[in-house]
Specification:
Two copies of one chain form a homodimer. By secondary structure, chain A is an all-alpha fold. Chain A has a single domain, classed as Chorismate Mutase Domain, subunit A, CATH 1.20.59.10. Chain A is built from three helices and no strands. In chain A, helix 2 packs antiparallel against helix 3. The radius of gyration of chain A is 18 Å and the shape is flat. Chains A and B meet through helix 1, helix 2 and helix 3 of A and helix 1, helix 2 and helix 3 of B.
């Protein structure tokens, strides 16, 4: 009975993992698009002011259970990975 | 014209950030529930086999643009934060 309950919760967790995966990758695609627009404008890809604004907005909307510091840390990792994605694209564009 | 395009992409990014925030917190709540069930069963909270299975499943569904290694790293951070959430709950339960 309790194992059934655990299995059910784990199934829900598996679905959530894949939803998060999907959104993180969608975010990656969007950041790639932004990188392309920035390249055509000659704008710098890393924008600390914009990153701070995003983190502030995320904080404002954080209702837990994760603490602000944890959420900030996770999103900073996501931002860092996204920036690397843009930089890879830029390098590839330079090589063409 | 191009700035409008950039603003629009940024609005989409802001929405995506909040969707990701929402799902990460939902995942946190679910992991807390799982922790409670495990506590009543006396089962260990950290389960490396289950974690490996989740990572494998996430890999199988990863269609990019993020590379497998990046996605694994991001999810390991999410798992770590979730486990800390369970441990906090457990400590609080012990203190009651």
């Amino acid at each position: 009975m309790s194992n059934e309950q655990l299995d059910q919760l784990r199934d829900e967790l598996d679905s959530l993992n894949l939803e998060i995966l999907d959104l993180i990758n969608k975010r990656g695609e969007l950041v790639q698009e932004i990188g392309k627009v920035k390249n055509t404008q000659g704008v710098n890809r890393f924008d600390p002011v914009r990153e701070r604004k995003m983190l502030d907005q995320i904080n404002e909307h954080n209702n837990g259970p994760f603490e602000e510091s944890t959420i900030q840390q996770l999103f900073k990792e996501i931002f860092k990975a996204s920036l690397e994605l843009q930089e890879d694209d830029h390098r590839k564009a330079l090589l063409v």
